[in-house]
Amino acid sequence: MFKAVLVENDPAGGYRAGLRCLDEARLPDGEVTVRVSHSTLNYKDALAITGKGPVLRTFPMVPGIDLAGTVEHSMHADYAVGDAVLLNGWGVGERHWGGLAQKARVQAEWLLPLPPQFSPQQAMAIGTAGFTAMLCVLALERAGVEPADGEIVVTGAAGGVGSLATTILSRLGFSVVAVSGRPEATEYLQSLGAAQVLERATLATPGKPLGKARWAGAVDVVGSHTLANVCASMQYGGVVTACGLAGGMDFPATVAPFILRGVTLVGIDSVMCPRARRLEAWRRLASDLDLSQLAAISTEVGLTDLLELAPRLLNGQVRGRVVVDLNR
What we know:
Layout: E1 2-10, E2 14-22, E3 32-40, H1 43-50, E4 66-74, E5 84-88, E6 103-106, E7 112-113, H2 120-142, E8 152-154, H3 160-171, E9 176-180, H4 186-191, E10 196-199, H5 201-204, E11 215-220, H6 224-232, E12 234-242, H7 256-260, E13 264-267, H8 275-288, H9 294-297, E14 298-302, H10 306-314, E15 321-325
Parallel strand pairs: 8-9, 8-11, 9-10, 11-12, 12-13, 14-15
Antiparallel strand pairs: 1-2, 3-4, 3-6, 3-15, 4-5, 5-7
């Protein structure tokens, strides 16, 4: 038996999420069974728990798009009992039971060896958010963006992706301008390396098709008018990485930045990202992330805290990363 957050949706009882004690026989098919020690609460997980968004594809479902732990049973040559592993994405926690449980059974190809530089808790303090942030950094680098080119704007900077993008980029020598709707987060963002903090309202409302050129690069987790305004304010040849939709799925922009300034908009997907790029991102996280920052970026909770915490996360009341200790 193991503890898990289980989301159910039936015509009689409706949509509900609760803490359950489940038999291991209920685990879905998979090649590797993992004893999960740590997971996370991400935006997607909060949507799944609250039912505020159509994230889950089947029911019942254990949410949790991240997990870290040790192999308990393996039918695949790449993994042996006792191996430390981690997982991000691949539809886990959406189509396949995920990490907000003390046990998970998954396909071997979805797993990565836990880098020796990280404890399971540290790996989850990074999680999908840090993995996504590093994918954004790698995309900026592949496009040739360098610190000398100018400022990098990071939207939604007080959230998980934004916090980690800010600290990684600043450590690499970039001048980071953090955008946040939380005035109380200014000191926090400066401690992560932000050179300047802007109020979210400066980008969140409809703007001009083409604004004053400022940014050499961007990491956007918001979408909607914010993404449109970021694109409109890019320097010639600037690069925007888009990885979220916290402000909306729409993109009310024009082609002006792209055909008049040669701006590049790069989509970042962490769910189906190929294995080789995953390994590269985690290798770079091990070398480029200041692990001493993780304590400031993350908060640790137990399974029993998640039902109350999920709506707060959706309302922008949770800063940084939420690590879930499955043994609490």
